Amino acid sequence: MAAPHPESWIRVTPQGLYCEPGDFFVDPALPVARAVITHGHSDHARPGHDAVLATPETLAIMAARLGEGGPRSPQPLAYGQSVTQNGVRVTLVPAGHVLGSAQVVLDWQGSRLVVSGDYKREADPTCAPFEPVSCDVFVTEATFALPVFRHPPASGEVRRLLDSVSLFPDRAHLVGCYALGKCQRLIALLRQAGWDRPIHLHGAQASMCELYGRFGIALGELRPVPRPQKRGETVLPGEIVLAPPSAEASPWMRRLADPVTAVASGWMRVRQRAKARGVELPLIVSDHADWDDLLATIAEVGAPEVWVTHGREEALIHALAGRGVRGRALHLLGREEDEDAAPEPEPEPAEGASA
Description:
This protein is an alpha/beta fold. It contains seven helices and 20 strands. The longest helix has 14 residues, at 154-167.
């Protein structure tokens, strides 16, 4: 008997992607009894679930970010290990997006579907690299699924940042970056590029850096941004400060010495967006696959059918049709790029933190 098509056992519901024989959801947008979570970003890891299966790192991130809203019954599953739920085998493999991010491999009666979550293919010293898994249906993101989005190597963008620091030694460099994943990746890339001085953090960034440290990701010396000693004074000329992107429009940045404003995001490829935000130094550093890597990944997994979610579905589906691959837009709700989220309130300065 032929294996059942995944369309017969995986369906889209108001809560999200539902595995019917296993009776669980993947990255549900609403609270559910059983969920498998791909990674800790807030548009995938929602509060209020009962039982949650995820990597140990993702569960730790959820506990730190959600507090009492975290899963009531967390179930850690390491990469490459499997559990079976009502006959459905669930395996988590690295997605290369952020610490603990996983693809969800679902096997049922000889049929295989892979939910990639968010992923990237470029090397990242702070998380395990993406592992392609052959499958019958591949569920892919499409955040940057337009040919204009071809990301340059992140190491070159970090070199541009360091060149600017050398060029403007009397100015602080304030880099807007999302607190989970992008911040830690930038720090690691700066260390690889030879920047061994302390890196200063907005208070919203510190807790995730500490969590990365607990999982063995060395980030070097990290310090909070000090308050000026006197009214009218500024701090940190010649230093690098990392903060949520929206912090650049807040009074908080006035303490910095004539800051060069930078944002690290795949969206910085769009010059109009950088200009509209007044970004002086746009850095094209993305934690998502670009156009070429999306197409290469889909070819590598060899799925004859691809389901596309959150992003530029139409462009990717059109491109896949020309390659003989059937595409389907899932139109899942609540999926969005999280890099422009408002910063959390900054805690009072403490002594230097390291991770």
